[in-house]
Design brief:
Elements lengths: L16 E4 L3 H14 L6 E4 L2 H10 L4 E4 L2 E2 L2 E2 H11 L4 E6 L4 H10 L3 E4 L4 H12 L7 H10 L19 H11 L4 H8 L3 H15 L4 H10 L5
Parallel strand pairs: 1-2, 1-3, 3-6, 6-7
Antiparallel strand pairs: 4-5
């Protein structure tokens, strides 16, 4: 992993951002890191529990959510599932002290974009957030190998009529192949000489057609259907 990654070069960072965290010190830390990335204070909101987060999410659209799992009034996985249902394209990064397989897999299945442990230093947290902003799906190095070996073995139930779902177009199949190789949206756009926003639109359609909500699940589902080698 490179430790000299430049900040996102978008003219405007995707906003607003919601931080769901009950620890005041961690809120201050994430506020500082987001500020260093380039976020203005007014672009970042904070919720200390699920109730506040739900109220905030219902009042305005969000571009990215940083969420802890251990919250005073429940498990952050519940919130991830609800947010993902509301917006399949929303970026959701878990930053938590929980490192059990149950917590990690639960968050990823619910639709988390990535998962990072709180013990990581500020630079690693910053790099993970930047990765999300570039269309990546960062997984904490400590758990990445274990998760990557577990996820392909999952056999989610397929609804009746799955075989009749809409087929991927040639362009969508091409983009999905690049996704499976770990390229970000920006990198795929450069490879295909199209805009990043066009790539994002194609990926949203891929999610809809495969009935998934994350890049990892899209790749796994495509492999199970024989769409990827």
């Amino acid at each position: 992993m490179s430790f000299n990654s430049p900040p996102p070069d978008d003219a405007l960072l995707p906003a607003p951002v919601l931080v769901v965290e009950d620890d005041p010190l961690m809120r201050q830390r994430l506020s500082r890191i987001l500020g260093e990335i380039g976020y203005a204070a007014e672009a970042v909101s904070f919720s200390a529990n699920l109730a506040e987060a739900r109220a905030h999410a219902s009042s305005q659209p969000l571009a990215m959510v940083l969420v802890d799992l251990g919250l005073p009034d429940g498990n952050g996985i519940e919130l991830i599932r609800e947010l993902r249902a509301q917006d399949p394209a929303l970026w959701i990064l878990v930053i938590s002290a929980w490192s059990t397989e149950e917590a990690i897999l639960g968050a990823l299945r619910a639709g988390a974009t990535g998962y990072l442990l709180k013990e990581r230093d500020d630079l690693e947290v910053s790099l993970s957030i930047r990765s999300v902003l570039r269309g990546g799906a960062p997984i904490d190095p400590f758990i990445a190998r274990r998760i990557l070996t577990l996820l392909p073995t999952e056999q989610p139930h397929k609804p009746a009529g799955m075989g009749e779902t809409e087929a991927l177009s040639a362009r969508e199949s091409e983009i999905l192949e690049w996704v499976s190789r770990g390229l970000s949206n920006r990198e795929i756009a450069e490879q295909l000489t199209i805009s990043r926003y066009t790539v994002e639109c194609h990926i949203k359609r891929i999610y809809r057609k495969l009935a998934v909500s994350s890049r990892t699940r899209a790749v796994n589902e495509a492999r199970q259907r024989g769409l990827l080698s």
